[in-house]
Amino acid sequence: MKKKIRETNVSILFFCILTNSSMAIASDSIDAETDNDNPQTANSVSYGWDATLASKYIWQGFDYSDGGSVLQPEAYLAVNNFSATVWINHDIDTNKTDELDLYLQYDWSLENYALSAGYAYYDYPQNEPHRDDWDASQELYLDISVDNKFNPSLSIHYDFDAGEGAYYALGVSHDYEVATKNLSLAANLFYHNNYFDTSGIPSFEINASTNFDAGSFTISPSISYFHTWENGDFRGANAVPDVWLFSVNIAQDY
User: Fold this and answer.
1) Which of 151, 155, 154 is nearest to 141 (CA)?
2) Cα 106 to chain center, whole Å?
3) At 191, phi and psi to the nearest 5?
4) CB-neighbour burial class of residue 106 (10 A; exposed 0-12, middle 13-18, buried 19+)
5) What whole-number distance in Å separates Cα of residue 39 and Cα of residue 36?
6) What's the CA angle centered on 76, arms 73 and 79, to 5 degrees?
7) CATH value of 54-253 in 3.40.1710, 3.30.530, 2.40.160, 1.10.10
8) How far, in whole angstroms, is CA 243 from its chain's centroid?
9) Three-class secondary structure of residue 228 per DSSP
10) Alpha-carbon distance 75 to 51, whole Å?
11) Separation in Å, CA 150 to CA 155, 168, 174
């Protein structure tokens, strides 16, 4: 099992008010002249990178680095609403790059809703010692979030390859102003539906994070606590233990 997401947002909103027929004709005339002057609209291109230094590789409560620290760099390129992202996990203890992920994503928005749909490919080039039986896999996913006081979000992933199942993440978050800095508090509930033959709630996450600028860089420290309880297929030897995660991310966008 595994996974990791990043999101980007691009929004376009059209709203036109016509009060009478003469204004409508004038508006159409102006639009026609504008189109003739600008026959093509330039593409919006952005790119960037970031890197996370984390105390462990934790995904939905699962420890994928056996308690060892990891370095997780990524880079993205976005053209209009489309983006491509490469994400890597490097195990510091073993000095092995044991995961390489590729994301192809399309983003759009509607009023205060942000949506992302995409394809993800996961590969494990240096499996041992933590992933000696892991196979490459593929997913389709959809992320939905609402911009309001509690910023609810829902992430739906369907693995049509090695995992042959689905998993979900339901989250809420709220930002607070603390000493001129933003403090974000978030909670996430995870659920698996026959994902790698397991169903149930692997964990519940509580997270606190902040960010600040350092020149052209954005630095974001974060702390999470993953709590679990025996349910579904996560019982006995398959139970997921509680765990803390500490990380710091540095990012630069262009």
Assistant:
1) 155
2) 13
3) -145, 140
4) middle
5) 6
6) 175
7) 2.40.160
8) 21
9) coil
10) 9
11) 16, 19, 5
DSSP state letter for 148? S
Chain centre to alpha carbon of residue 189: 15
Query: Phi/psi zone of residue 194: left (φ > 0), alpha (ψ -120 to 50 degrees), beta?
Result: left
Domain boundaries, the chain: 54-253
How far apart are the C-alpha atoms of 53 and 79, rounded to whole Å? 28
CA dist., res. 1 & res. 191, Å (int): 13
Other beta carbons within 10 Å of 70 = 23
Structure tokens at 145: 């979030």
Read off the tokens for 56: 């462990």
pLDDT in tens, the chain (254 residues): 444 433 333 333 333 333 343 334 344 444 444 444 454 457 899 999 999 999 999 999 999 999 999 999 999 999 999 999 999 999 999 999 999 999 999 999 999 999 999 999 999 987 676 666 789 999 999 999 999 999 999 999 999 999 999 999 999 999 998 876 789 999 999 999 999 999 999 999 999 999 999 999 999 999 999 999 999 999 999 999 999 999 999 999 99
CA 203 to chain centre: 18
* Distances, alpha carbon 173 to alpha carbons 11, 146, 152, 205, 233, in Å: 21, 11, 7, 12, 28
